[in-house]
Design brief:
The protein has 406 residues and is an alpha/beta fold. It has three domains: 56 residues, no CATH class; 210 residues, 3-Layer(aba) Sandwich (Rossmann fold), CATH 3.40.50.150; 101 residues, NAD(P)-binding Rossmann-like Domain (Rossmann fold). The protein has a seven-stranded mixed sheet. Strands 14-13-12-15-16-17 form a six-stranded mixed sheet. α12 links the parallel β15 and β16. The chain is globular, with a radius of gyration of 21 Å. It binds S-adenosylmethionine. The site of S-adenosylmethionine has 21 residues, from loops.
Length: 406
């Protein structure tokens, strides 16, 4: 155990490390063929727990501009599941909080998967997105996007130019932002009377219960619980007044936050707090136990792959996801083990996976040259993918909680 940095949220002197996944590349930094011989940026992927405010977080982090730039590999709209999810999410926000003329802002809007659903005739809607290639995709859909990192300075500029927002929302973004204090200071400046901040991110209970160690990667600086977030927002005179578990991204939590006293606190908050307490998410041994399970999971996956290979079977990876980068690098799965990884994001095809340099091919190639087995590197889309590939005859291997053929 090492204590190498202060808690980013409460300033507690030392984080207690409970897991290291070793030296890792940036999970979404897919490589061109001509670059695979060059030195690749790597950092130590280790996670710590703050005994004071209970926030789980990375110990070493990567500069944000190395992750979010004009070459960001993740386009939200490649998934039908997420398209459906965001349609429901935007309908819900509209119904619950919005009135004609309100300003709605999305932090980290990516290619506009959610933003596009709001009625732009009724509301003033725009996104803030630092990764210019995905922001451009959103603009091509006719959406208004500011290409920048959201922070207090930007929030002040927005207030001056466009006024205050009724709803600020973010999905799978807040846990990415190391300067979380800056974000919340910006939100405080930007929210109008009775305005709400709504955000959702992978949930610590799902990560632990599903043994989903591949949720740990450079972009995910924080692993939120309600317990830790309640402590955090209270410093800013803000309250989490509602929360809802989500099935997306392997299990997430959606949080509704307002200025103290603006909304009645729903029962969902005490129910979730009780659950977190019962699951002992505030105790360090919970995380030590998780780390042991992760080691077991790796051993089982390596053994399963060796067995399948020894039977002369062909194996590939399915979905060149950021989660996949972690599994492949942590378990030492190379291009000798997987022939290729198939994916449906056009910009990833022809590239090589970070760290292990496995070629990424199209789904067309997967269908024309199907393997015997494929590791499902996007286990969170298992239902969607199994349905889509039911005719292929390929057997899928899932690595979490423990390796098995599904
Ligand atoms: N909201 C989309 C979704 O759920 O599919 C995109 C999620 S993607 C995992 C994270 C997004 O957050 C990226 O598009 C990234 O560029 C953006 N992002 C990262 N840091 C940000 C910041 N400080 N302000 C605004 N967006 C940010």
């Amino acid at each position: 155990m090492t204590n190498v940095c202060k808690c980013r949220l409460c300033g507690e002197e030392s984080l207690k490390e409970f897991i290291t996944l070793g030296m890792m590349p940036i999970a979404n930094a897919f490589l061109k063929k001509e670059n695979i011989e060059n030195d690749e940026y790597k950092f130590e992927l280790n996670v710590g727990f703050c005994e004071n405010c209970k926030m789980v977080q990375l110990i070493d982090t990567v500069d944000k501009t190395m992750m979010f730039n004009d070459n960001y590999a993740y386009f939200s709209s490649v998934s039908k599941t997420m398209e459906d999810h965001f349609k429901k999410y935007s309908d819900l926000l509209t119904e619950r909080f919005l009135e004609d003329g309100d300003l709605v802002i999305e932090i980290g809007c990516n290619d506009g998967i959610m933003l596009k659903n709001f009625d732009r005739g009724k509301f003033n809607v725009f996104g803030v997105e630092p990764s210019d290639n995905v922001a451009e995709a959103a603009r091509n859909r006719g959406l208004n996007v500011i290409t920048n990192f959201f922070d207090q300075k930007l929030a002040e500029k927005i207030v001056n130019e466009k006024g205050k927002a009724k709803v600020i929302y973010a999905a799978n973004v807040m846990c990415h932002i190391e300067a979380f204090h800056e974000v919340v200071k910006g939100v405080k400046v930007l929210l109008k009377d009775k305005g709400v901040l709504v955000f959702e991110d992978p949930y610590i209970i799902d990560i632990i219960e599903k043994n989903a160690y591949d949720q740990i990667y450079d972009e995910h600086v924080f692993y939120f619980s309600l317990t830790s977030l309640k402590n955090f927002f209270s410093q800013y005179g803000m309250t989490i007044f509602d929360c809802e578990r989500q099935t997306t991204h392997g299990g997430s939590m959606r949080y509704y936050v307002c200025n103290d006293g603006d909304y009645e606190i729903k029962n969902s908050v005490s129910v979730a707090m009780k659950n977190e307490s019962e699951k002992k998410i505030y105790k360090f041994p919970t995380y030590e136990n998780f780390a042991e399970n992760v080691k077991k999971s790796k051993k089982m996956l390596v053994e399963l792959l060796n067995k399948v290979k020894s039977e002369g079977r062909r194996i590939t990876g399915y979905a060149a996801s950021s989660k996949g980068t972690i599994v492949l690098n942590y378990c030492g799965i190379t291009a000798k083990d997987l022939e290729y990884i198939s994916d449906n994001t056009p910009t990833k095809i022809g590239l090589y996976s970070p760290g292990m340099h496995i070629p990424i091919v199209s789904e067309k190639e997967f269908h024309e040259n199907p393997p015997d087995y494929a590791i499902l590197l996007a286990w969170n889309y298992a239902k969607e993918i199994k349905e889509k590939e039911k005719e292929s005859g390929v057997k899928f291997i899932v690595h979490i909680p423990f390796a098995r053929v599904i």
